[in-house]
Amino acid sequence: MPKQQRRTFTTEFKKQMVGLYENGKSRAALVEEYGLTASALDRWIKQAQATGSFKEKDNRSSEENELIALQKENQRLKMEVDILKQAALIMGRK
């Protein structure tokens, strides 16, 4: 079975789908009529109710934001350690 290609939807389209759902159109009808996945529609509804934004960064919890910041800092520190190791090798040769 061929893998379905990933589609992207505009913010306006997502708002329209959430609006239809909130005005009584069933989830199943929206999924079938517009060829959506139920999980995508559920995520849009949750995001619209929580923050009104469909951007992932606007819908992250404080713990998720902290984890991302710590991962970035960890990566930076690893790079610094690698640079210092290389500098120590170079200095040791002289």
From TrEMBL:
Keyword line: Coiled coil
Pfam families per record: HTH_Tnp_1 (PF01527)
GO molecular function annotation: DNA binding; transposase activity
GO biological processes: DNA transposition
InterPro entries cross-referenced by the UniProt entry: Homeodomain-like_sf, RD_transcriptional_regulator, Transposase_8
Coiled coil region boundaries: 60-87
Name of the protein this chain belongs to: Transposase
Originating organism: Paenibacillus algorifonticola
